[in-house]
Amino acid sequence: MGFRSGGAMLRLLVWAAFLLGCCHGRFVVEKNSLKVTAPDDLKGTYECAIGNFGVPQYGGTMVGFVAYPKANKKACKSFDDFDISYKAKPGSFPTFLLVDRGDCYFTKKAWNAQNAGAAAILVADDKDEPLITMDTPEESGRAEYLENITIPSALITKSFGDRLKKAIDNGDMVNVNLDWREALPHPDERVEYEFWTNSNDECGPKCDSQIDFVKSFKGAAQVLEKKGYTEFTPHYITWYCPEAFILSKQCKSQCINHGRYCAPDPEQDFSKGYDGKDVVVQNLRQVCVFKVAKEHKKPWLWWDYVTDFAIRCPMKEKKYTKECADGVIKSLGLDHKAIDKCIGDPDADEENPVLKAEQDAQIGKGSRGDVTILPTLVINNRQYRGKLDKGAVLKALCAGFRETTEPAVCLSEDIQTNECLENNGGCWQDKAANITACKDTFRGRVCECPVVKGVKFVGDGYTHCEASGSGRCEINNGGCWKETRNGRTYSACTDDGCKCPDGFKGDGKHKCEDIDECKERTACQCKECKCKNTWGSYECSCSGGLLYMKEHDTCISKNGATETGWGFLWVIFFGLVAAGIAGYAVYKYRIRRYMDSEIRAIMAQYMPLDNQGDVQSHSHHIEM
How does it sit in the membrane (predicted)? Predict the structure, then answer.
């Protein structure tokens, strides 16, 4: 066995040891629903596994019919060679091409189906087994078409595939609905996502696609993070060296901390270039950059560091070093001493707490399986499947928000179609006030009565919405009647609803009519009164120089009214004068009595009063 093949064997043993050490974990196949609507004997919902390439329509659905080719059933060759086309004609259903597994890569089948005009590809398994994830090929010489696959793909079970084929052979039209709306959890207004990646830039097309994704997605990721819409965490996979090989040259070159944390040799050649341990250290440095940046409340700087490091410190230019990394760190204003402290001593025979946490995080928890594929994107604790592309990933992130809480970027034309633009989405609308109950969402639209300028509208959102509470009259007059004539305006809007004002009658919402008080004899009905109706009111005058008193609906003499008025004032005046004199008399009387009592009290202290003297003299006379 040669040295290189020995290294390959070691890598296999390392991987086996990792699996044995993590046997309590498991790989979770991410699935979506496939619903058959016809024929009747196939109606139902079936599971299918999402392919790890193409662009799954996260948050959406796709309707089409299934076609099974009469030739090239495994889709390993171009359908042009067989003069077969599945391009949809105007007004027709899209085609979901059903093909058999085997003989070529899943991606090759998808590429040929896409070129033939299929809207999606369903691959029927060739044996009875649990569903697996269809992944991209690992060989370094992958074809360029992989990055250009845009149709969604799904693997179905052999038994389900056989039933579909039988129905098609019988001449039945098989209608299906691919549903990705629940492929990702969407519990609240914030999306948590992880990106499992690698600092190695010499692993071929997969490494190239990773750094290309980071560069293109950086701007969107940083905006979402800064505004609090997302919480992002980067992760890095490491393995450990089997104890029997810890002292071997291979483990020493691929591992740090005495074989605890390892990475494959970047060039797959131990005799040249960088070693696996160099990759582990740079991975660790990138984790520490994130930790320190997050402690300073700037976690988005990770995207800047990874992008700049890839540009300034590539392996090909022999710059994949600590010195180059420190230069990038310094240019971003990060504390390189804190980062070095986080990294610790790679040569120490002890655990590194940061890398130990990374290894623990690789094990699946809850609905998320073990992370075994690089790169891997995890959104709301569910592994993303599909093309690592800015647009595709952004769609998946948008599918993770609770409906109506999505940020504006998720509602742009590049991401989704605004269903409120056509027939207002079938929702209630007040065109005059430019108010609508239609709310565009990433998944479609909802009809929900709005809140406008602090005023809440209530109703079903589809046929009826009405302003409620205080301030409702400020918004389109609360939907109530309102009219202006001859400079006078009347409104039926009140805080409690629509009610015609005094002088009008009607429903208050659509119509209020003037009440003719003269004709209906509700006012100005005295003998001398002359009534004239006006819009919203009336005018009443009196004949013979009399004066009309509206409160009593009567006419009185102007002179009489004046005399009565002056007489009333004189009565009040004399009453006040009398009250003043009486008050003064009472005041004088009370003062005088008070002064008399005070004087008598003072005199009693210095001389006996007459009656006191008589008593004392009489008493003395008796004793003698």
Answer: Single-pass type I membrane protein
